[in-house]
Amino acid sequence: MKRLFAHVLGAASAVALFAPLAVSAQSFPGDKPITIVVPFAAGGPTDRVARDLAEALRKPLGGATIVIDNAAGAGSSIGTAKVANAKPDGYTLLLNHIGMSTMPALYRKLPFNVENDFTYLGLVNDVPMTLIARPSMEAKNYKELQTWIKANAGKINLGNAGLGAASHLCGLLLQDALDVRMTTVPYKGTAPAITDLIGGQIDLMCDQTTNTTPQIEGGKVKAYAVTTSKRLTTPALKDLPTLQESGLKGFEVTIWHGLYAPKGTPDAVVQRINTALKAALKDPEFISKQAGLGAVVVTDKRMEPAEHKKFVSAEIAKWGAIIKAAGEYAD
Question: Which pLDDT belongs to residue 16?
């Protein structure tokens, strides 16, 4: 009888020991605020996505307080490292874009491993790209632009918003597809790059619709094509052909955003956040806000953590080959 009592008492103690953990996971996040680290400056396209997502996540997370922490610098690696080193409890998250798949090739040394030091929570959206030119560009359509590019190889200035920026990556892919080398001109952000494009100091740029749509609508730049497999429905962009239909077979690039937590985050917390994320991605207001940025909210299996990680691994392989071939990397 004593042995049976001791066994029951031991089992009860074990339940008592682990019960707080179970309750904590089920009640996550409770009264404690969640921080979403954005590894870019406030006001940029990734920051806007993060703030819209934070608002959409609040309801499915029980009215949680969610704050945005802009930790910009070094091609997003500073903010990304901050999350990699954070306590793995679900209260510090990362929202990053395609840079998660390009940093391994762009930087010789990183203080983290993209594939091994994070818990993947799900993709958020896809952002199309547009090929634009200075307003004085002679070409009237993409076919004429491609002829102009071939004729002026070596004399073309191709702007971008800095190493690892979406515009930098799209520019690399464009040069690779056309088998033409251009002079890449990096800027400290999208705004000064587009300002010089409008002023005619550079010739071309390939950037996100979140940055280019207002300039296209205002007639400040010339737009030639989009980088998606199908034409876009956005009023200002609906008449633009895709680069694929214009002759660059297989050319497709979108800038995606994903949500991450530090490695070791409890499975129950991961499931709670992922469930909230999937609810947020169905929120009509969030979908509308993303459409206004030219972004498409993810509805496929990449919302799931395992598929998200599988997708990023494939992107690392894709962009690694392109970046290494171009020889463009940081120390």
Answer: 40
Output the pLDDT for position 26: 65
Please give the pLDDT value at position 326. Answer: 77
Question: What strand order describes the sheet that includes 255-262?
Answer: 66-70, 34-38, 92-96, 255-262, 118-127, 296-297
Tokens of 306: 């395992």
Grouping H, G, I as helix, E, B as strand and the rest as coil, residue 317 is helix
Same domain for 139 and 220, yes or no, is yes
Last residue of a domain, one of 211, 226, 241: 226
Q: Are 93 and 79 members of one domain? A: yes
Could you give the count of Cα atoms lying within 13 Å of 73 in the half-sphere of its Cβ?
Answer: 7
287 within domain boundaries: yes
Tell me, what DSSP letter sits at residue 330? B
Dist CA 10 CA 114 (whole Å):
42
Domain total in the chain: 2
Same domain, 170 and 114: no
Say if residue 201 is in the same domain as residue 268. no
Burial of 220 (0-12, 13-18, 19+ CB in 10 A): middle
User: How large a percentage of the chain has pLDDT more than 70?
Assistant: 91
- Backbone phi, then psi, for 132, in 5-degree steps? -125, 160
Domain of residue 185, residue span = 129-226
pLDDT of residue 306: 98
Residue ranges, the chain, pLDDT below 70: 1-26, 328-331
Distance CA 286, CA 299 (A): 13
What CATH number has the domain bearing residue 151?
3.40.190.10
Whether residues 119 and 259 share a domain: the answer is yes
Instruction: Determine, yes or no, domain membership for 269.
Output: yes
Helix axes 209-217, 190-199, angle to 10 degrees: 30
The answer to whether residue 1 is domain-embedded is: no
Question: What DSSP designation does 242 have?
Answer: B
pLDDT at 111: 95
**Three-class SS of residue 107?**
strand
